[in-house]
Amino acid sequence: MFDALVLEKDDRFTAAVRQVDDGFLPDGDVTVDIRYSTLNYKDALAITDRSPVVRAWPMVAGIDGAGVVRESRHAAWRAGDAVVLNGFGVGEKHKGCLAQRARLRGEWLVRLPDGLTLAQTMAIGTAGYTAMLCVMALEQNGVRPGDGEVLVTGATGGVGSIALALLSKLGHRVVAVTGKAGEEAYLRALGAAEIMDRAALSGPGKPLQKERWSGVVDPVGSHTLANALAQTRYGGTVAACGLAQGADLPATVMPFILRGVSLAGIDSVMAPLALRTRAWERLARDLDLSLLDKLTHEISLSEAVEAAHELMAGRVKGRILVRTRNDA
């Protein structure tokens, strides 16, 4: 028997940590003893039943996990291997990693990167891995330090915080957008050169505005993304990876056809193994790991439901690391 955060929806929705056995686990060729997981925005949506994230019931929440292989029928993995899991529908269609044990598919797993601990990978989690994919997309499109300012929206969130830390360490001048006026010291500590109130971007704006950004990382969407596009400099790139404000995009084609702006869509869930492996290697190299303590709040598995509600209420900054067992 082991503990898992189980989501059920019969007559009513419930989310609770309870004991289950191996028979509760789904099909898969690798069983992993999960040491750490994390709480992402998508996890919080599922745990609070605020959005139809979950596609099969009952579900174990948790789109991220890090642990040690217990049993394997997959050629790439043996008992004792340290592995990391992000996405692939885990916690949505396939029972997830906010649990002490998970059964997964070997082709979904990434070997623990050199230089990172299991706990550090989950302090980074899908949010940080997504942030790295955004940074790599900007680089692929030619955004370089010194080209101009880079904008990071939702900067106190998981993606925004790590994107800010990465871009600053890589030499960019980063402007951080937040609605939390009291978090300036936190954002400055991560490397923000300037703080912008999110109200400046969150309402309807003109199709083209004063050019400012060489690159943008946007986990927010809606009017914020539309305004960021309208303010991006000629030939600049906007990496869009989220919808915290909304899934709509009330924009025009003007930034694309008059300024040559590129909109790079970032998908972390189904990204191919080679790309996600490169992203994790870059995170081990390019993220100032000493900042993880500033970014991260650690909780136990039993506290995850309450923390999900706090996240949805906007009372969380940075990353939430979930310790699944006391001896992790």
Structure in words:
- It is built from nine helices and 16 strands.
- With 328 residues, it is α/β, with parallel strands linked by helices.
- It folds into two domains: 2-112 and 289-323, Medium-chain alcohol dehydrogenases, catalytic domain (Quinone Oxidoreductase, Chain A, domain 1); 126-265, NAD(P)-binding Rossmann-like Domain (Rossmann fold), CATH 3.40.50.720.
- The strands form three sheets. Strands 3, 5, 6, 7, 8, 15 and 16 form a seven-stranded mixed beta sheet that branches.
- The longest helix is centred in the middle third of the chain and has 23 residues, at 118-140.
- The protein is globular, with a radius of gyration of 20 Å.
- The model has no long low-confidence stretch (mean pLDDT 96).
For the structure shown, list the relevant keywords.
alpha/beta, Rossmann fold, Quinone Oxidoreductase, Chain A, domain 1, 9 helices, 328 residues, six-stranded parallel beta sheet, 2 domains, 16 strands
Unreliable stretches covering 5 or more consecutive residues: none
Largest sheet properties: 7 strands, mixed
User: Total domains, how many?
Assistant: 2
Determine the number of helices (DSSP H or I, runs of at least 4 residues).
9
Summarize the structure.
With 328 residues, the protein is an alpha/beta fold. The chain has helices at residues 41-47, 118-140, 158-169, 184-190, 222-231, 254-259, 273-286, 292-295, 304-312, and strands at residues 2-9, 13-20, 30-38, 59-60, 64-72, 82-86, 101-104, 110-111, 149-152, 174-178, 194-197, 213-218, 232-240, 262-265, 296-300, 319-323.
